[in-house]
């Protein structure tokens, strides 16, 4: 139990100092909202077993405010219980309550219904938005305040916002001041931090007093320039008397070593412990073409897999944390500088390696091997040259000149190319995968050099190194044999092969109620209560030849007269749809997730963007407007009177400089119109009656409200051959809709109903647009579920939850990123012997088929 009278946490040049202990901290992301509550304790223990000191934890606002004013902190949303378990596990916590978190989570945790409020300023110092944030902080901050380190809890820091320097916040100082004041008003007295996503520390903190900057570094692990970049930020914060806190970075411990020697005192690799987006919670983001769907399987290759498997990187974690514990305050208070004396490196390495000058004497030099091949290097010292072996994908931490008196040992460790993972009166312990060298000396004696063989797993090498009357006991072990502070742990891994599943039953259970409500225009999903889930739309298209759909997302299934016509996922880009003489029109629009980042290239990638069918128009007329554009001077040589050219048709040697094309469009003053810039290759500025907007080649459309379009100017960088056709469409709104909202709660409710059915077997064929429920028997225990087939979407349910969704091979499928798109996880605690699947066929070149399904055992 923590002694409340002495427990302290402070932020100083040595980093986060807990109870006076100055030590570099390693921190793993571990997210309660991506795990069943039943495995929280085990996952925390797994992190502890790697030697990591801390975890960082987002608190997603929309995970707890599930609808406006409806709050849930029970069950697997009981974040207070999770924080208490972290404390019991001996882990400190960096809490990250947002309000925005990114994290590839639905909407970045901003509730989607905020987008229904016109002119609300998301992530702005705007009263309505701050009012909603205050309601969230009124519930989240007391939970954190009661569990601060100084009050017997685990919370050692609270991060406000997330990577604000990526976002166009108009008044960052006012916004971050408001968040700070809310936190302090709830009794938060541990350090407040704010992380920069692209190195703009003032952009992240707003320059607000009382908020310390932190940094997220995501370099290419093979980059030769990691060290000089990180040292630059270490110097910047050192000028302010602050430490370099790295709140997110890559998971490779080779990269983490490079950051450590470059001055970082908090190392928090993002998603070191992976998880699952259970429920309708993944986001859409800009990691695709440019849009992409995040997988339910949330896995960036961290040392713990989403299903709890320990990966080889856990051994590297134990070695690095043992190294930081051994050097303790000397390392935490070290000063970083460019390393000298490293040369003749036989493999790709750092362009400017780093060296830490340890407090109290000695140095640590990082020598990376950025390749998959073994290498060598030479290190010049006061004792001469030493050749060192470099394991593939490694960063040797060369200790030089370390006084040993603090460990109860005589003399000085003059040189060690193996990792120093322990030292006390009994001797020194090292870890290495390759042969290594150690050098000791005592005053007045000649330094003694010892060459150490590379140990095998389970077979440490023991040496007595003697200089005169002084001896040092040395053990060098394989990294796999380095234990965490609490001792060895049993490895967790795969224990069996995947099993093909059969025993499927097709249920006589409806997939929707069919109860609809009338709307004049097609509403967005959120307006009819579908914050997550799907919305069904129907209307008449009698006498209409073509539709224009603006802003639809995320997954859109269209049918005419009950026959599947199209499936697309275009992230809100405008789509033309031929009607071909049909009478009725139906659409099912499923929300995959809301944008977790802010990207203006596509409407659905903008933060706060809404979901649903969007605006649906009939195309009443179309006219070619490619010609009769005047070319204005400015950076081009066009004279006055202005020459007349086709759009993009100006010829000039002044490539790259703006060219402006202007004309009046033949709008009627009463109708809506859409201008299509077909063939647009680069973003351009379109000024409509003086009001400018940026148009992306990913969605080259400009909507013109009635009366707009009398004066249109298109400005783009001049590039020969980059012009294209332009068309003006006159639009009429499609009216008289029947709409059935089907939020996630309704779908989960249907999935839980009892139903009879008929036995079916794989492969299971469907018609395009057909959907039905099937139950599938699953062996006991935790299972990874995989689905094979084409043109089929599968939603899997168990334990009153959506396990996740899989979209099998399909030309209409967007890019999936973030993890394995074909795997879902049935946790052992949720497995009652089967899963319920909602399967839907999509239109394509062949017939939809679910070919088969397998279940592989998992640790949990």
UniProtKB/TrEMBL annotation:
SUPFAM superfamilies: (Trans)glycosidases
Pfam families listed in its UniProt record: Glyco_hydro_35
Signal peptide as annotated in the record: none
GO biological process, one term: carbohydrate metabolic process
GO function terms (MF aspect): hydrolase activity, hydrolyzing O-glycosyl compounds
InterPro entries for the chain: GH, Gly_Hdrlase_35_cat, Glycoside_Hdrlase_35
Top-rank lineage group of the source organism: Bacteria
Keyword annotations of the record: Hydrolase
Residue ranges occupied by any Glycoside hydrolase 35 catalytic domain in the UniProt entry: 16-223
Assigned protein family: Belongs to the glycosyl hydrolase 35 family.
PANTHER family associated with the record: BETA-GALACTOSIDASE RELATED (PTHR23421)
The protein, known as: Glycosyl hydrolases family 35
Organism: Glycomyces harbinensis
């Amino acid at each position: 139990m923590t002694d409340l009278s002495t427990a302290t946490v402070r932020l100083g040049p040595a980093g986060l100092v807990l109870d006076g202990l100055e030590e570099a901290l390693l921190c793993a992301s571990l997210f309660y909202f991506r795990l069943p509550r039943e495995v929280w304790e085990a996952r925390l223990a797994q992190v502890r077993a790697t030697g990591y000191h801390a975890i960082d934890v987002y608190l997603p606002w929309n995970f707890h405010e599930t609808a406006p004013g409806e709050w849930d902190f029970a069950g697997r949303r009981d974040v207070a219980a999770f924080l208490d378990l972290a404390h019991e596990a001996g882990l400190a916590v960096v809490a990250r309550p947002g309000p925005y978190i990114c994290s590839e989570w639905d909407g970045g945790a901003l509730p989607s219904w905020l987008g229904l409020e016109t002119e609300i300023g998301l992530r702005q110092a705007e009263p309505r938005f701050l009012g909603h944030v205050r309601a969230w902080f009124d519930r989240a901050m007391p939970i954190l305040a009661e569990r601060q380190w100084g009050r017997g809890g685990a919370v050692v820091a609270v991060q406000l916002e997330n990577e604000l320097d990526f976002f166009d916040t108009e008044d960052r100082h006012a916004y971050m001041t408001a968040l700070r004041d809310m936190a302090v008003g709830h009794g938060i007295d541990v350090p407040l931090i704010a992380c920069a996503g692209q190195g703009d520390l003032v952009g992240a903190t707003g320059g607000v007093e009382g908020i310390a900057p932190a940094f997220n570094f995501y370099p290419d692990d093979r980059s030769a320039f990691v060290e000089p970049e990180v040292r630059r930020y270490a110097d910047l914060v050192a000028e302010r008397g602050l430490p370099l806190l790295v709140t997110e970075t890559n998971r490779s411990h080779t990269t983490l070593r490079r950051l450590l020697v470059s001055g970082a005192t908090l190392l928090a690799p993002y998603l070191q412990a992976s998880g699952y987006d259970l429920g309708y919670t993944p986001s859409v983001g800009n990691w695709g073409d440019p849009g992409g769907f995040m997988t339910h399987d949330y896995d960036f290759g961290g040392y713990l897999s989403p299903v709890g498997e320990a990966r080889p990187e856990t051994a590297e974690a134990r070695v690095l944390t043992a190294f930081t514990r051994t050097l303790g305050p000397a390392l935490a208070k070290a000063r970083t500088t460019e390393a000298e004396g490293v040369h003749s490196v036989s493999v790709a390495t750092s362009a400017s390696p780093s060296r830490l000058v340890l407090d109290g004497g000695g140095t640590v030099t990082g020598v990376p091997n950025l390749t998959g091949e073994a290498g060598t290097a030479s290190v010049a010292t006061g004792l001469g040259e030493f050749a060192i072996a470099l394991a593939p994908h490694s960063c040797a931490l060369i200790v030089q000149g370390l006084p040993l008196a603090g460990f109860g040992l005589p003399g000085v460790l003059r040189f060690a190319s193996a990792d120093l993972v322990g030292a006390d009166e009994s001797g020194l312990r090292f870890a290495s995968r390759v042969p290594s060298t150690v050098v000791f000396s005592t005053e007045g004696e000649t330094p003694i050099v010892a060459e150490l063989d590379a140990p095998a797993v389970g077979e440490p090498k023991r040496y007595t190194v003697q200089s005169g009357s002084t001896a040092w006991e040395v053990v060098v072990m394989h990294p796999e044999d380095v234990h965490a502070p609490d001792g060895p742990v049993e490895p967790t891994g795969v224990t069996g092969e995947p099993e093909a599943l059969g025993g499927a039953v097709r249920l006589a259970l409806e997939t929707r109620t069919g109860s609809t409500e009338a709307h004049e225009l097609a509403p967005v999903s959120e307006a009819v209560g579908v914050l997550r889930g799907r919305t069904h739309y129907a209307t008449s298209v009698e006498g209409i030849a073509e539709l224009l759909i603006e802003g639809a997302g995320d997954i859109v299934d269209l049918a005419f007269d009950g026959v599947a016509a199209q499936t697309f996922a275009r992230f809100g880009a405008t789509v033309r749809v031929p009607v071909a003489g049909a009478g009725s029109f139906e659409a099912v629009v499923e929300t995959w997730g809301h944008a977790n980042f802010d990207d203006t290239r596509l409407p659905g990638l903008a933060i706060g963007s809404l979901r649903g069918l969007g605006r649906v128009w009939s195309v009443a007329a179309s006219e070619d407007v490619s010609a009769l554009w005047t070319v204005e001077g400015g950076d081009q040589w066009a004279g006055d009177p202005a020459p007349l050219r086709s759009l993009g048709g100006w010829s000039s040697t002044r490539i790259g400089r703006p060219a402006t094309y202007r004309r009046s469009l033949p709008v009627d003053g009463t109708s809506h119109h859409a201008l299509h810039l077909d063939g647009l290759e680069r973003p351009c500025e379109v000024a409509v009656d003086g009001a400018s907007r940026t148009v992306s080649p990913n969605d080259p459309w400009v909507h013109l409200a009635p009366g707009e379009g009398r004066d249109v100017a298109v400005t783009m960088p001049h590039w020969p051959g980059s012009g294209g056709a332009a068309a003006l469409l006159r639009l009429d709104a499609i009216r008289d809709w029947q709409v059935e909202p089907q939020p996630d709660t309704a779908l989960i409710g249907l999935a839980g109903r009892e139903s009879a059915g008929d036995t079916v077997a794989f492969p299971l064929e469907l018609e395009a647009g057909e959907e039905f429920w099937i139950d599938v028997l699953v062996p006991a225990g935790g299972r990874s579920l995989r689905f094979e087939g084409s043109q089929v979407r599968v939603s899997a349910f168990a334990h009153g939850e959506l396990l996740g969704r899989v979209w099998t091979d399909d030309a209409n499928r967007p890019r999936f990123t973030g993890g394995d798109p074909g795997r879902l996880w049935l946790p052992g605690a949720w497995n009652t012997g089967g899963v319920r699947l909602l399967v839907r066929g999509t239109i394509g070149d062949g017939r939809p088929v679910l070919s088969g399904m397998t279940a592989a055992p998992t640790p949990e």
